[in-house]
Structure formats: C-alpha cells, structure tokens
Amino acid sequence: MESALDTAATDWFEGPLGTHVLREEAALAPLALDDVFGFELLQVGAWGPARHLLDGARTQHTTLVAPEMNSGVTLCAPLDSLPFRSDSIDAIFLPHTLELVEDPYAVLREAERVLCAEGCLMICGFNPFSGWGVRRAFARYVGWPAFPPQTQRMLSERRLRDWVALLGFDVDSVYGYLGPLPTKGRLPRTLDARPRPAWTAGAYLLKARKRVKTMTLVRPRRRARQRVLVGAAEPTSKMGP
What is the total count of domains within the chain? Predict the structure, then answer.
C-alpha cells in the first residue's frame, strides 16, 4: 500500500512543477552520460518515474537500486550497504538521492567503495541558495510538507565538492539546470566546473571521477657490508727447524 509521503511525491511529479523538473533532467542526463562507458551503470535511489534517467546510458548494463521494491527497481537493498564488491562498478548516478536519506555521507562513501578506479560519479542536487532552497525553508518554517516532497535537506555544490574530494574524486564538470526560481524555465544549460554565483541555477548535476591510487614502491635499504680487518702477521727472524 502506498504511504501518504509516496502519494504526495507522486502527485508532485505529476503536477506542473514536478513535470518540469523531470523534463529538464531527462534532457540533461544524456549529455552527462555521453562519455560514460563500461559494463555497469548503477542508479542508487529512485527519483520520479522509474529508469527515465537511464535511457541515455551507453554502458552495457544498467541497474536501479532502491530501499523499497517498486516498478522499475531492479534490486532492493540499503543504499549505504550495496550488495556489490568493492571496485566493481563503472558508473553511479545519484539523482537527488543524498537529499532523501538520513545519512548522505554514508551513501556517498558506499558509492566510492563500489566504484572502480576512474569510475564516474554523477550527483543531482537542488541549490539551497536559490529560490528552490528559499521555498523549502519557508515550508519548514510554516510547518508545510517538505518541498520537494520527501527531501530532508539540500546540499550546496561547494559542500558536495568538499565531500567528493575527501573521498578521492576529481570533479570533471558541473551542469546547471532549472531556473533560480521554482517556475517553468528553459532547457538545461551546460556550465563549466569553475565556481559560479549561487543564483545561476536552481539545481546542478556534478560529475566526478574516482582517482587512481598509485603505489609507491619502497626499496629496502641495502645493509652496509661490514669490513673484517685481519691483522697482518708480524715479521720474524726465526727459521724453521
């Protein structure tokens, strides 16, 4: 049976504002996935209609993992304890997932664990310093339901950059989309990865690569050979018998 929170989320996604968000993200996802190759692309967390963000995937296989089994979900598992081996996944997509869970850093740390070296990490998030964040703060202040539904927080791009850097990622690019206010706007516009004013976009997609851990070979020190000094025989005038 669908809960009241699930019903509110479904109604929001089917409304004009939610439809606008999904339309822009569906247009943006193929741009972000264009150079993502490999065998496995893992979407961690469900957002809106099942698998609509994976249509542009160029990997051989895609999997959608969510804590609850719904339509389109491939695997049901805790998001902070994924049933995959370490260094086994080529790419991971987190569509607003960190905003919907109690411990976002734990989910991010788990994503780092299963990603292989040079693996791609993509994260969608709302800009808390835009009108979207202001509207969410106002809803909390007056006691209204969360905006957007089920979101527990909004993470700034700067904080997310710090988190992924601590986990060993290099940011490749950032795509800004949605207008700074929660109203209808244009299609996504691509921004570079340099710092930009907070009001530039209402949401962002951060794309990063897991750094390769290089091993430094430490050669054992050669032990200095100890010289053995043998005393010379003293000369003598004695003759043998």
Answer: 1
Helix count (H) and strand count (E) of the chain?
A: 5, 8
Q: Which domain holds residue 14?
A: 4-210
User: Is residue 220 domain-resident?
Assistant: no
CATH number of the domain to which 125 belongs: 3.40.50.150
| pTM for the structure as a whole | 0.81
Model confidence over 61-74: pLDDT tens digits? 999 999 988 878 99
Of these ranges, 47-56, 159-168, 185-194, 225-234, the one predicted with the greatest mean pLDDT is 159-168
Structural domain includes residue 222: no
Q: Residue 231: what are its φ and ψ, rounded to 5°?
A: -65, 140
DSSP state for residue 118 in the 8-state scheme: E
